[in-house]
From TrEMBL:
It comes from the Eukaryota. InterPro entries: DUF4116 (IPR025197). This is DUF4116 domain-containing protein. It comes from Zooxanthella nutricula. The lineage of its organism: Eukaryota, Sar, Alveolata, Dinophyceae, Peridiniales. Residues 1-45 form the DUF4116 domain.
Amino acid sequence: VVLEAVRQDGLALQFASADLRGDREVVLEAVRQDRWALTHAATALKRDPELQPARAEPNAIAGPGARAPVIDTAAPRALPGGGWEVAVARLSGETAELRLAAGATVGDLAREASRCLAGGALVHMAFPTGPVRPLDDSAPLGSPAPAAG
């Protein structure tokens, strides 16, 4: 219930329990909706790089339970000159071959997939190893698969 509340109004975080104000996923959802929500986060999270508005606001990976299209993602393929090529598809059948720079992150892939297949909206990313969570945004694209769960 709190997760949905902060998705609608990030400042609702101020009314959440101390435990929830200390939950990174809840705080991320709140900050995405309203940058000032970070002022209501637990002190330990206020300096978390992933929760800073400049990082949280462009995060295109939908959180658990969010209404968003699912993007099925093939394993990234390294390109000979550097960078990555990744095949992505919506469950509706729309597909795209995306090319990303050598230092690309999971979040870069999500933003590009969102732009190409979801009109810039949040998306659920499904890697061959499982779902990707919003806090996986800064994981390097070529690293072992982001930790699901």
